[in-house]
Amino acid sequence: MEPFTALVVILALVLSATALGLVWRAQQGRIAPVAGDVITPTDVASEVPFGRDATLLLFSTELCARCPGTSRLLAGVAGSRPGVAHLNVDLTHRADLANRYGVMQTPTTLILDGTGRVRARIGGVPHRAGIARHLDDLTGSSHVRLAS
Amino acid sequence: MSASRARPRIDPRGPRFVAAITAVLLLVVVFLALTGAAVAALVLLTALAALFAWGAFAGAGRHPFGLLFKRFVRPRLAAPAELEDPAPPTFAQGVGLFVSLVGVILGLVGLSGGLAAAAAAAFIAAFLNAVFDYCLGCQLYLLLVRAGLLGRRGTPAGTA
C-alpha cells in the first residue's frame, strides 16, 4: 500500500474510533424508563431489605473502575431520602444474575419502586440530578395513589 | 465492596496517559504493516506486547509509561479527585497483551493484514480509554463472566 493510502486508512481508523467514543459517551448515564419485572431481595441474595418507596440497585464487578464512585453517589442519594434504599450486587461470582437481568456493562443501575418493580435502567455512571428527578416522580406517583 | 487488594491505589489519570502513548504507537504499527514494513511492524508490536505484559503482571501502577507519568506529568497536575483500584486498568493491560500477541503470531506466520487488524483493534480500545475514559474492565470483564470464561460461582451477591 502507498504511504498516502495508508495515511488515509489511519485517518479513517481515528475518525471511526472517535465516532464510537462519542456514541458511547452519549449513552452513558442515560435513564431509560422501563416497565420491568418485580425483583425481590432474595432474587439478588441481598442482605438488606429494599426501600419502602424506592430502591437503587447497582450491578458491579470487582474489575469495574467506575463502580465505587457510582456506589457512593447512590448511597448519597438514598441517604438523603427516607424510604429509599441502595444496594450493590457484585456480579463477579453471579453470572446467572447478569444473564437474568441482561446486564451488558457495569455500573448498571436499576431503579425499583416500592413494590420492587423495575422502573428505570441506567448504564454507566448516572447523574445525581437525573436520579433525584426520577425518584421525585416515583414517590410523587405513590402519593397520588395513596390519596385516591 | 472489595476496593484495595495488595496493590496501592493509583492516580486514575496514569492509565489514561499510558493508553495515549500506547495508542499512538499502535497507530505506527498499523501504518508500518500497511506500507509493507512487515519486520518493523512486527518488532514494534512485539515491544508493545512486552509492555502490556509488564503492565498486566506487575500491575498498572508499575507500567514503564506510568512511571514516566509519575515522574514528569503528575507533579505538574493538581491532586486527583480520588485514587482508584489498579485492578481494572491491570485487567485492560491483560486484554491488550492478548490482542497484541494474536497480532504478533499473525505477523510471524506472514499475515501482515492480520497483524494490522489486531493492532487496529488494540488501538481502538487504547484510544477510547485515553480520550473518552472508557473502561474495558467495566464491559469486557462482565461479558467474559457472562460467557463463563471468568469469575467464580456460588458466592452471595448483594450488600449494602
Automatic annotation (TrEMBL), chain A:
InterPro entries membership: Thioredoxin-like_sf
Source taxon at top rank: Bacteria
The protein, known as: Thioredoxin
Species annotation: Cryobacterium tagatosivorans
UniProtKB/TrEMBL annotation, chain B:
InterPro entries for the chain: DUF4395
Keyword DNA-binding in record: no
Pfam families named among the record's database cross-references: DUF4395 (PF14340)
Bilayer-spanning residue ranges: 21-45, 90-111, 117-144
UniProt keyword terms in alphabetical order: Membrane, Transmembrane, Transmembrane helix
Residue ranges occupied by any DUF4395 domain in the UniProt entry: 10-146
Keyword Membrane: yes
Protein name: DUF4395 domain-containing protein
Organism: Cryobacterium tagatosivorans
